Amino acid sequence: MLQPEIEFLKEETPIQITIDGPAGAGKSTVAKAVAAKLNFVYIDTGAMYRAVAWLADRHDVTMDDHSGLAKLAAKADIRFENNPSGVQKIICNHIDVTDMIRSPRISRLVAEVASVAGVRQALVKMQQSLAADHHVVMDGRDAGTVILPKAQYKIFLTATVEERARRRMAQIKDQGQSQSLDEVIRDMKIRDYQDEHRSNSPLIPAEDAIILDCTNLSLDETVAEVLKIVQAGKKKT
Ligand code: DC
Hints:
With 237 residues, this protein is α/β, with parallel strands linked by helices.
């Protein structure tokens, strides 16, 4: 068992750390590592939107059927299961969807699912109740602005589009797929635009978030920076 680096366990009020930011900045890797260091629960809100997209695909609910999508989200039973090796599984309606929600097909559908107001309402409610009784690290796009506006620590993790694209390229290569850097940069710019300009919960830093640019930082350095912010009790004033 990892020894927490900062002793929060005696705190009665749940401690909430939110990490928001654009695609490819490394939020989930950083959030997972910070949660492990602190012995906090990690909540991957993007995975929950992906699970609803997977349900829609499985039940043939089309992207223009907003009330059908909202109903699917409201009825979904989405759970996270942590195993001792640190791998987190996502279980949707009793099915392990951990790998299926990362498929290119679901990646294409999920932005539309995430822009439906009724879906967001249902998932935000679930996300708030998941965070209610634990110390958590939550990553997403609206964790610090909408889901946990009273979080004690809010980080907005960002990097240049070129650097985020280079990191995404490495993942694509690892998965045995190929795409040119120009294509990845173009897709990322489109996704940034969609995330920043949608009417429901657009991607913007919370007013009291600390902006952390990790363009020139390694994963370990980024995690160390986040821990430093938490340890210093640092909040934007
Ligand atoms: O972080 P990710 O790629 O797994 O997110 C999947 C999608 O869900 C992406 O289109 C952004 C969206 N999302 C969101 O709108 N709000 C969140 N809190 C998390 C993700």
